[in-house]
Known about the structure:
The chain is mainly α. It has helices spanning 4-7, 14-34, 38-61, 67-90, 96-109, 112-118, 128-149, 154-197.
Amino acid sequence: xxxxxxxxxxxxxxxxALSFLRILLVPVFLWxxxxxxxxxxxxxxxxSSATDFLDGYLARRWNQQTRLGQLLxxxxxxxxxxxxLLGLTLVNYVPAWLFxxxxxxxxxxxxxxxxxxxxGYGPLPVHFLGKAGTFCLLYAFPLLLIAKVFASIxxxxxxxxxxxxxxxVGLYWWSGVLYYQQVFSVIKPSAKTTRLGT
Length: 198
């Protein structure tokens, strides 16, 4: 008789559940920031960062990598980046230009979705530079919060936070340029095939 674990859908696993949990905590995290519950917000962000590592580790360890998980993980990262930036901007912890620079990068990438879809492709895998940029940004934001909460160490933590933020922005945009190159490398052969077939 087939075990219940074998009859369970492939996407229904612990790594994906952790990714869903991270996404569900995004509005909670944003509310905590704008409501000035900074200590709790830092705790939620730390928990989310831990589950970000854990879901990827478990997916690889247990061989539970799924297409859904590949979509959920970067989606959760992006939501946390925007929620944190929006919250920090609303409470005047960071200048508004930082929010708009990050948002602009995402807006620039929107046309790639219909371009890929027209050729029958979904989103491409995240480039390692994009992961590095996300890593820097997700380190910068907790440090920015900590610098505001613990004034005694602000002079040490704040420069470190901004170093991560600037590197994160640079890598984030660089990965966006490389993503466009990946998109064109994927759709260009299809275009050639179409022309040869006509």
